[in-house]
Amino acid sequence: MPEKHNAERRERYAKAVEQLGNVSAPVRLGGVYTLVSLVDEWLREENIEYNERIAEGQIIINNLCAYIRSPFALVSRYDELIQDAPTAEGLYKNREQEFYIDKAGLEPEKKVRLSIIKEIHRRLQGPDENTPGAWSDFEYDFSGSIFFYPVDLTRSYYAKPVNFSGSAYWGEADFSYSTYMDEVYFSESSYQGRAGFNGSIYQGEADFRSSTYRGSAGFARSTYRGGAYFSGSTYLSEAVFRGSVYRCAAAFNDSAYQYWVDLRGSMYQGAADFGGSTYQYWADFRGSTYRRWAYFNDSICCGWAGLSHSVYEGEADFSGSVFCSDIYFGQDGDNSSFSRFTGCAPQFYDEINRKNTLFGSYNNNFTVENGRGYPIYRGIENLPPGCCFLAEAEKEYLSGIFKEIEETREKLLTTERFQEKIRLPGKLRAFNAALHEWREKVTTAQRTR
Fold first, then answer.
1. How far apart, in Å, are the Cα atoms of 144 and each of 66, 169, 186?
2. Which residues contact 198 (CB under 8 A, 6 or more apart)?
3. 175: Cα separation from own chain's centroid
4. Do 311 and 438 sit in the same domain of this protein?
5. Does the structure show a pLDDT above 90 at 237?
6. Euclidean distance between CA atoms 67 and 408, whole angstroms
7. What mean pLDDT value characterizes the chain?
8. Residue that finishes a domain, picked among 95, 123, 151
């Protein structure tokens, strides 16, 4: 009898997979629900071992994920097709009939794909917080997907690896309060709307490298027990990482924050690398603890930089950087706010590579706890030895290029044109590359002021 049931399931599976390729959206949707039911049936099958049930279900999960990854021709015209009528400058100018035909095809496909995500999401949630759901023991590969619909995968529990790398999200994407027991990959992805990863737990490696966030990006109050990699990313709106714990290496290097970034109150038990980054507005690192090396070198900060009320137990390197506005290691009148360097004095001048740090403000606060740590030594201009103030010509250059960056950012945030969304991030990357080429020249200690 079990063999008969298994044969029937495989027959239904083959038919459902065939339905996924049907031109009719309702037929495709029917295939989705059949596949979902089959996974549930396999998991309830008591006549075979659990590993066999998972293996049978995984085959079906792979099909559902493949459907999400599959290309959909109308996606490139999404911004136009969600309008009520053709736009005067769009692809459908003087093609009104084609516009309404394509528009009618977009919504049904959106419904099919959204249904897959919703059914998976329901089964990734356990009865209690941070507990597995019925489908948590499967692997999920959504790499290279284009999500032209909102993604809600909050409070999900993944026991196996999950891959979202190389994906594009046209609406909001929320993965908050989730648990990843194995590796998770979100690298090389783009987010047009708000992206939420708050309150999550990562037991394995978490890879967010080389991603672009057009809307706000939230990673607050998360715990990373494996390596956490955010390097090479661009944030066009606010980015919030505050209150997080990193038990292994944390890499934020070579990133561009075009708006403010909040990393307050975090704990770094492995090396923390913020080097080579650009901060268009303020950068807040206050109230954090660094148990090993902390790298802030080769960076450019246009707004104020808050580093007060923090503890640095290893080496702290700020050399080769440019701080255009105020930098704070303490606050006047508040002794409890002073940072403490317990491993060694912080480095602002790299003697080996002869790279110094440049400052644009005379209102910096370098006061730290001397009694329980190392001081920040200062020279006659109240700057660390070997460091200088920015020259007027350098300030003018920075003002000009940051103005161009801000104008490009505003265009990218407001444009509805698909081609502009593709082109403008490249322009921002070019500005950032030019900035760091300039920074490398001016911070190489060729003169003393």
1. 10, 11, 10
2. 176, 177, 218, 219, 220, 221, 222, 240
3. 11
4. yes
5. yes
6. 35
7. 92
8. 123
